[in-house]
Amino acid sequence: MCVIFGFAKREGWQSESQLDRIEDIVSNLTFESVIRGQDSTGFAICSKDDKLVYKTLKRSDELVCSNDWHGILEKIDADTTVFMGHVRFATHGIVTEQNAHPFVKGSVIGAHNGVIYNHNAIASKIGKNVQVDSEVIFGLLNKKDKYQEVFDLLEGDFALSWVDEDYRVLKLMHEVDRPLHVAYWKKARCLFWASTEEILDTALKEAGLIVDIKELPVDKVYEFNTEDFWKMPNENAVKVKTNESYSGSYYRGSYYHGGTYAGGNYYGNIKSNCKQCNEVTYRKDKTCYKCSNKPSDSLRLNKDGEWIGKCVECQTECGYDQLQDTYNGYICNICDYNSGYLHSGSSHGGTRKQYDQCDHCGDYQPSNEMARINSYVLCAYCESMEEKYAAERQARLPANIPDGSGSGVEIK
Q1: Do 340 and 363 fall within a single domain?
Q2: pTM for the complete prediction?
Q3: Dihedral of CA 290/295/297/298: which sign?
Q4: DSSP code of 21?
Q5: What is the CATH number of the domain that holds 250?
Q6: Which of 173, 191, 260, 322 has the fewest CB within 10 Å, making it most exposed?
């Protein structure tokens, strides 16, 4: 099983509130990923100053709920370009911190979901003994100049994430037997990825972010240079040919059987329903990550044994079926209507606020708060960024290059 996940973002672009939301999404991704492995958890955090690697034998859901988690999130800042995560279900190699992903091989740091069956034969080509089959992939990527030379040698299943010498460039790739999904947050210039659509979708929505999720096409190495992140991530794709998958894989064979690991259900003994909102959770305290972040009095049982909650806007207590669950807390239907929140499926009489979609980031904002510049409709944030970068572009113009206003010096 296993899962790879993380984010790549444009250096120095995000506001404080956007960084906070990115951290929320990372927490959600890590927490939700326990469903695909419980043997170890690991991360790589890349910036211009350093490439940090953290590994632990804690389950990912336990790690998010531990005191160590705050220290990990503190390493994410404006200069971070890539955060690469991995949750392991061990196949080859004993369960130790050393055998946890990501692996560092020369200038390459990488994480792998899948199984490589001929890893022992490949190990001799990189001149090292390996305990984990995944190590050979990144050893080859460190030694070979061309991607095809690497994938010609690999026999197995794989979805990969890695960073080489350039801390700004994330590389993603998968073959047909291993999933890999991405979502791009245009406003924050940030790309998220995870093995499964379910994990990625849950992590984003629980942080209040709704963006399109797409599965990357197979057998292509996608090079995402975060310096080129604008309205689109503008990736470079290199086509490769992979060897056919093997029917004797651990995924199909003895390690995975229709939703169970060898030795038991892959949820372990931690799957339950949140005691507040009744959603599926894996936390020992039986409170989902979203509810655990809300004030303790957000929801409570009344004398009749029914859940009631307090609206964060008007402070009125309502039944759970009269509340909308938003990123900032629970809000009653009346405040939801009056504030013009866009919740699908809500039906109220009267006229709602008018909204426009920002042409840069795609977010919806009240029409009277949008700016219109050169036929574009921009939200306040994108308008400020446009002015900032327009000013920077103007400031970089040499004095002898005309700026279009007729005041420059003519070049002869």
Answers
A1: no
A2: 0.65
A3: negative
A4: H
A5: 3.60.20.10
A6: 260
